[in-house]
Amino acid sequence: MRDSTFPTELFEAIIQEVRPCRLILPLEQDDFSEYRKRLYTLCSCARTCRAWAPTSRLCLYSRLIFISTEKKSFELLVRSLDGNPWLQTLVRGLSIIDNDDDYTPPIPRYSTAAGSISHTWALMLMGKLPRLQDIGFALARGLACHTHLSRALRTFSTVTSLSLAWKHSGSFEDLLKLILVFPALRNLMIHGSLWTPNGRRELHVPPKEALSAPDSAHN
Predict the structure, then answer these.
(1) Which residues, at least 6 apart from 44, have a Cβ–Cβ distance to it below 8 Å?
(2) Quick one: pLDDT at residue 206?
(3) How would DSSP label each residue in 21-62?
(4) Kindly report the CA angle at 161 between 158 and 166, in degrees rounded to 5?
(5) Contact assessment for residue 166 and residue 142, using Cβ atoms and an 8 Å cutoff
(6) Beta strands in 142-186 (DSSP E)
(7) Would you state the pLDDT for residue 210?
(8) Is residue 189 within 8 Å of 164, Cβ to Cβ?
(9) Which of 10-14, 73-77, 109-113, 155-159 is predicted least confidently?
(10) What is the mean pLDDT of the chain?
(11) Which residues, at least 6 apart from 93, have a Cβ–Cβ distance to it below 8 Å?
(12) For the whole model, what pTM was predicted?
């Protein structure tokens, strides 16, 4: 890998321009496709030369998105974090998305033979993401907080934002258990689910324009 012949300000501006934007769950088809394209471009930037590598890696690792059945890719990430502890401090956001037509339409469906990381990612990353701030789930089914998962999630004490999007979730009690494991949580976004007073879930997916429109009722 050679040194760069360009001024630092120039190649850093190029890298910042191609870095993926922050995505909001559930993902739109065009958004996720664009995210993948920019991710591949960042990988190319990281291999360009020594000078480009640090900024490119910062952008590559700052926000990670994994399809739940991409187990081999996720295991590669874990090995990278174990082998390069300094990478652990770069990760600020992590999203796990189910291999489902509603959440991953722009990419080929992956084989589920290797298993899913939906309920194991926290155990695999315990103690490896000291600066993680945002966690997102887009799951076909809700995330049941069993004892081992709860203990693992509690280790991510720096998380302040949680995004949830799922089609089939459990009870309101299950949701509360998931929320309460994050002691520093300040922001919560739930898409596609409402519960009645008795805890039964009702599907409610507001139109996209309603999600982005200002709340005039409080103006």
Answers:
(1) none
(2) 46
(3) PPP-SSPPHHHHHHHHHHHHHHHHHHTT-TTTHHHHHHHHHH
(4) 130
(5) yes
(6) 161-168
(7) 42
(8) yes
(9) 109-113
(10) 76
(11) 22, 62, 63, 64, 132, 133, 134, 135, 136
(12) 0.73
